[in-house]
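re: ur question from yesterday

yeah so i grabbed the chain u mentioned. its 685 aa long if i counted rite. heres the sequnce exactly as i have it in my notes:
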Amino acid sequence: QLTKKLDLRGNSFSVIPAGAFLATPYLTHLDLQHCKVERLEEGAFRGLGRLVYLNLASNSIAFLYQESLDGLSSLQQLILEGNRIEEIQPGAFGHLGSLTVLDLRANALVYLPDMVFQGLQVLRWLRLSHNTLHVLGSEAFAALPALRRLSLDHNELQALPGEALARLDGATRLDLGHNPITYVAEEALAMASLRHLFLDHASLQDVAPDAFARSPQLRMLDLRENQLQGLPPLAGAGGLARVSLHGNPLLCSCLLRPFRNWLARARVQAEGACAAPPALRGRPLDSLKPPEMRCSRLRPPPSPTTSSERSRASGNRQCPRGCICSPAFHHGSCENRDLQEIPRDFPGDTRLLDLRRNTFRTVPPDAFPGLKELVSLHLQSCGIRALQPGALQGLESLVYLYLTDNHLSTLAAAAFEGAPQLAYLDLDRNAFTRVPAGAFQLLPNLISLHLQHNAIRELAEGDLAGARGLRWLYLTRNAIRHIAPAALAPAKMLEKLQLEGNHLVEVPTAALRGLSALSELKLSRNPIKHIGDGVFLPVASSLQHLYLDNMGLEQISPHAFAGLGPKIRSLYLENNKMSNIPNMSNFTGLEILNLQDIPFHCDCQLLPLHRWINKLNLRVGATCGSPAEARGLKVKLSTTFQTCPAWGRGETVEANPEKTTAASKPSKKKRSGKSPSRGFNKSRA
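ran it thru and got these structure tokens back, copy pasting raw so excuse formatting
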């Protein structure tokens, strides 16, 4: 009860239930990294009023609801990096009044609604890097008065989100690098305290002269690795001290003289070099003299014109009877109203529409008229059997569509006509017996596809036609026995493939060919008894997380992991039946290795594994299953290896997984420098 720091990394919890930590009310630090957590139940952390640090990184959390983090009134750091959070409901952080650091890096966020961070009154650093953000509500960052640093780099922002950023009066550092931003418009950035702005590795072609006129404290501007051929004098940026332009194709002609003269007058240090004309190529900007910058036939490309702002629906605040419409959040909700038809006449600026737990049966054509700004549509548990052609017509901003827990068994491509921005499609827990072939032809921006807990029996060629941008494919808990060699070919950008709990009897090696970006492969709970040599070679250059647990696996061939190595960060092998594993001494990047509930035969053949585990700074959970005198002992601590002839000498022992006994003797044959051919049998000692 008096425990203050609790480290639970590398376990398998799936769900954190309500009141899970009521027995440890004095906790200040809780680490739940790599625990396969998928859901935080409401009230999961109630009773932890003293907790200041919570790490939930590298799990599978997809949603944050309003009560998910209730009870953490003293929390100062919340780490949610590396989950698959797609959407955050406003109010999810409302109970975290002491939070100073919120880390949401490497999730699946596309959209931030208004007031999503409400309640974070003392937050100082918000980390949103490595998501796929391209829609930010104008009030997304409202109510963050203490924020000093905002990280939005490595997203999909196509324009500088000036309206949302204008709410951050106190922020001093803004990271926007690695976004496809092409132009910074007039007075685009109004941040009164901003001192450091990073716009590196974007797609910038032009910057307006007064782009930063409303950010008077700006001192450092990083524009490295863009497509700028020049810059105008940056009027209004009177406090600027340094501009970095390395990696831009700068044209040092007379057209750049005004900028060069402004640098000299304002005493601004400029870093960068000329790319043209040939006579000045490679010359540092600060070494140029105006007479050298002559006019030529070369001209910079015309500045991109700023796109006109989308006209917004004004003041029309109608709301269907029995529903709730929130003007402040642009939300509409008719949840659990026993409706049999989809209501109409929601305000035109509605962005999130929650229609869960009704009985619609079908979604007819043009079911959502006038909702051009709708981003997120929730239709879970509505008894839907058909999504008719044209059902989503006019939803040109729709990013999220949730159809979980319905009765859909087929889909036509025409059902998605009119919703070209759809990126997240959740079809879990429906009645599909096969992937609806060709249904994704009209969804070029589809990133995430959920088809878990259906009855799909195979993946056939053509099933994913058109899904060329797909990154995450979730097929857990189906009945898949076969995956055609070309079934995944259209999804060349696939990063995550989850096949847990299906009926596969072998690793689908042929289907993995061409998936050069695949970083996570989950094959847990498939009846695969044997893993042959080289089965992961097609994805060896990219794979980082491999799940082979709970399969009843009896044998792993000596070269099953050929090609894999330092890139592997986590490997799950727990709860299988083999007694030895292949040599993994080149897996030098491991952060998680789970070897629990494997009946290792702890004789001299396992000595190299014993030595390797002792060198790892990881808890792997490996225990001996035999011989009888070692049963139940940790492989890492077992003394049975001290009787081995090679004990203390670092000799290599030849392992034979097919014939491993307690009386095995090391080979007397002199070793060559080559790796042995069987088992985990090359010691690093």
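noticed a couple things. The domain at 148-291 is CATH 3.80.10.10 (Leucine-rich repeat, LRR (right-handed beta-alpha superhelix)). also Residues 257-266 form the longest helix (10 residues).
anyway ttyl
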